[in-house]
Amino acid sequence: MFQSFAQPPIGKKLLGDRFARFAKALKDDDLDGYIIPHADAHQSEYLPPDQERLSYLTGFTGSAGWAIVMGDQGHLFVDGRYTEQAAQQIDPDNFSTVDVMATAPAKWLKTNLKPGQRIGYHAFYMTVSQVRKFEQACNSAGAELVSCPVDPVDQIWQEDGRPLPAKGRIVLQDDAFAGESAADKLLRLSQRLKEENVDSALLTLTDSIAWTFNIRGNDVAHNPVALAFALLKKHGKPLLWVDGEKLSNSVRDSLSNIVDIEEISNFEASLTRIASAGPTILIDADSCADAVRIALETGGATLIERQDPVIGMKATKNSVELEGMRRAHLRDGAAMVKFLCWLDSQAAGSLTEIDAARQLEDIRRETALADNSQLQEISFDTISAAGENAALPHYRVMEHHNAVIADKSLYLVDSGGQYQDGTTDITRTIAIGSVDAERKQRFTQVLRGHIAIATARFPSGTSGAQLDTLARLPLWLAGCDFAHGTGHGVGVYLNVHEGPARISKAGHVPLEAGMILSNEPGYYKFGHFGIRLENLVIVEEPHPIEGGDAPMMGFETITFCPFDLRAVDVDGLSVQELTWLNDYHHDVFEKLVHTDLLTQEETAWLSRATAPVIL
After folding, report:
1. Taking the model in full, what pTM does it have?
2. How many C-alpha atoms does 459 have within 13 Å on its Cβ side?
C-alpha cells in the first residue's frame, strides 16, 4: 500500500511535554516567540517525515498551516479545509486555532506584539516575501524578527529520534512521456534569461527542477520529486545540487551531459562562491528561502526578483503531455468504474473507510497492469470518508477512527493515481442506499456548480477568480457555500497541486490553453455529511461561437466516471444541465467500454449508471 492507516494521534501528555521543552528552548535563546510554517527549504506542500515540524509540535497533520508560539501559548493558523481537523488534533491547553483567511499570521503578530519583543524564525523555512511581511509587522510594533541558526523544533525533536532525511532514488522521465528533451527545455530557459537580462536563475521548487531536467524522485510521499536546488545559466551548463547517493551511475552519466552536479550538502558554500563573482541572479521571492537570499546578497550577487521562469512553461502542457494525461484518465476512469461496481455489490454497513481505500488502490494497480502500465504511486492520501467524516474536506482515515460506510448515507472518495504518463485526481460522492431530500438537494446544487464550470466559455485573459463564482452560485442562492477553492492546477506525473493558475477567489493568474485544472465544488454540513464532485479539465484554445463577436476559451473534461444519479434531484436541473449530464455519461460509457479494461459485469453496471435521464 502507498498509504498507511496506522498513525495514531499524538497524545495530549506527549504534546504537552514537547510544548514545554519548546517553550524552554525559546527562553534559553532569549526569544519571546517563534514562527513555525508548514514548510521545508523547498516550500513543499507535502513534506518528508523529517520536515514535519508543525505536526511534531502541534499534533496537526494537515498540509497547510502556521503556528506562532508566544511564551506559554501557541496559536495555530489554518484555513476552512482544516478548521475541524485542527480542533480535534491539537492540545487546547497549549494551542488555539485561528482562521488564517480572516487573520493572517503577520497581521496577528502586528496586533499582538509588544515593543522590544524578539520573535524567531528559521530562514530556510520561510520565503523572502514571507519574511518581509513578518519584518514589517514586527517593526510596526517595535519588535524584532530574529533569524535563528538552529530551529528550536529541530533541537528538541532530535532528542526524540527525529526521522532520517529522505533518500529516494532519482530516475529519468523519458522524452516519450515528457514531450520535450531536457536539453531543449534548457535552451528555451537560457533564451528566457537573456530576455530577462540576468546571468542566471535559482530554482528551489522541486517540481520545477523535476520538469526542467526530466527527472522524477521519491523523497516526498505521493509527489514524484527529489529534494534538490538548481541554478540555470544564460551561458554554459546549469548546476544541480542533489544528494549523490540518490543517483545511479547511469542516471548520473545521463544528467552530466546537460548539467554539472554538486552535493546538496555544499549548497550554501556554493552559493557564496557563485555570488562572489557579482552575477545578476533571478530569484522568486514567493518560493525562494530567505536563507538563499541572505547567502547570495552577502556574497556579492545582484538579485532580480521575478517569478520562477519554469512555472509558466510547466503549467502549459505540450501535446505529448496532454495525450498522456488523457490516456491516464481513461485508465483511471476504468479503475474507478471497477471500484464503484464493486462498492455497489457490497451490503450497506459491511465495509469500513479503510476497506474501501485499500480496495481502490488494489484496483488501480491491477487496472494499470492490464493496460500495460504501472501505478507508480497514489496522488495523495485517499480521502475515504463515510457520513459525517465527509464534512471534513481533507479527512484522512486512520485505524483509530475508521468508520463504517452505513446505509442511508453519503460516502465521499477523493483519490488519484500517479502514472508515468499522467497524474489523476477525482472525487465522487456515492449514495449508500436511499438518501434524504436534503442530501439530494445539496448534491444537485454542487453538481450544478460543477456543470457551470465544465460548460463555461470565457475570453482570453480570464482568471480563475472570475470563474469561481459560477461554481458557487447554486449554493449561494440557497444560502450555502464551501470553504475551499473550486480548482487547482495539476502536473503531469508531478505534483497533484500545481501553480500558478487556480479557480478560486484568490486565483488571479489568467488561464492559458494547455493548463490542467480541477473542477471540484463541494458542500459540507459539519457533523452530518459532505459532498464534492471533481473532474480534471484542460483549458482549450479560443474558439468562435456562432453569432458571437470574439472567440472564447473553454474546458475539455478529461475525467470519465459517472456521477451517482441516485443522489440527484432531477427536477432541480435545468434542461441544459440535464443535457450536459446525459451527454457526459454517454461519453463516459463510450470511452471506457472501448478501453477493453472492463468485465461484462462492470460494463453492465456502467450501462445502468450512465443511462439517460429524462425530465
Report:
1. 0.95
2. 4
